[in-house]
Amino acid sequence: MQKILIVEDEKAISSVLSDILSDELKDYEIQVAEDGLEGYKSIEKDDFALVISDIKMPKVSGTELLKQALALKPETTFVMISGHADIDTAVDCLKDGAYDFISKPIDINRLITSVKNALDKEKLAKENKTLQKENVTLKKKVNKKYQMIGQSPALKKIQDMIEKVATSDARVLITGPNGAGKELVAHAIHAQSDRSKGPMIEVNCAAIPSELIESELFGHVKGSFTGAIKDKQGKFELANNGTIFLDEIGDMSLIAQAKVLRALQESKVSPVGSDKEIKVDVRVLAATNKNMQKEIEAGRFREDLYHRLSVIEIYVPALDERKEDIELLVRHFAKLVADEQGNAAREFAPEAIKALEAFSWTGNIRELRNVVERLIILGGSPVSEKDVEAFVRK
């Protein structure tokens, strides 16, 4: 049962208030403190939905109690009462955090209305806090799908960066070798962003022929080129109010780069074969395994587009730079493979883990995942060092 505390040095008044509130508020327990010091001690050891406090009291005044109690428990709701106060005192109490101020002699109807409103406000505040916690929990569940496994300083640095940039709309360029987890970083940024309810559209710029990349990104109209048998929406338009992830951006043609730059500058796209401009609200994330400065110097990538894309740059290190994460990754992948196959997760002997840590992982995390699956299929139970020697390349 929730509690209400009455802090009042005049017993006749505290008794009357206690009786009235007990009748009006059946779901609340009413407690009484005889002065400010006793009131503070009560607040210190217990939580109250509402505190009704006199101002002029021995030991600790009501104004001092208000300040001290809110410093200790900022969520506490106060209604102040006094027969010796002026307008300035009332204003000061409200400035210090009191919900309301009532003068003596107390108008009972006014007091009951104020108390009920204060309790409604306190209830709403709690419900809001609960919703915020649920949102955090939901966000964590969303992020779990894209959880990055490990405890290395390198990974911690990436996770800290993701947390900082996710809630902004800043463009992020994710760099690092193939198989290191750049796509995972992009998904984590989107999942933790305010756009998480919107779409995340992925485009592998290296996998699309240069003559088709413009159509993929910006769409086309029927008859704009051979094979364009109907209108088609582009990836930018499909990602509206969400995120577009341009993977392997370093492989994009210069012509497509120019159009992407225009789309970023104007937040508009034009389908191939059309003069129509379509307004888009899209956050752009990009990734590459190339040295962009060398690509710019060689004339293969536009410097102005690079600066547009790399407001924030996140480097994802090779697995060889974070070998302390291999054991956790192996156990994580073993569970994933087991879940996919409907089996119990296979154990890996400590010697097998050490053997895997000794390898140079040129294929990075992607290669490690494949190796774990191979060992689970071909190795013993638990997977041994001999299994690693037999089924993993030297």
Coarse shape: elongated
Quaternary state, please?
single chain
Spans with pLDDT under 50 lasting ≥5 residues? 137-143
User: What proportion of the residues form beta strands (DSSP E)?
Assistant: 15-25%
Task: Count helical runs.
Answer: 16
CATH class bucket of the largest domain: Alpha Beta
What is the total domain count?
A: 3
H/E topology pattern: EHEHEHEHEHHEHEHEEHEHEEEHHEHHHH
Side-by-side strand order of the widest sheet: 2-1-3-4-5
Distance between the termini: 67 Å
Determine the CATH superfamily of the largest domain: P-loop containing nucleotide triphosphate hydrolases
The number of strands is 14
* CATH structural fold name of the largest domain: Rossmann fold
Structural class of the helices, strands and pairings?
alpha/beta
What is the architecture of the largest domain at the second tier of CATH? 3-Layer(aba) Sandwich
Specify the helix fraction band. Answer: 40-55%
How confident overall, as mean pLDDT? Answer: 88
* C-alpha-based Rg, rounded: 32 Å
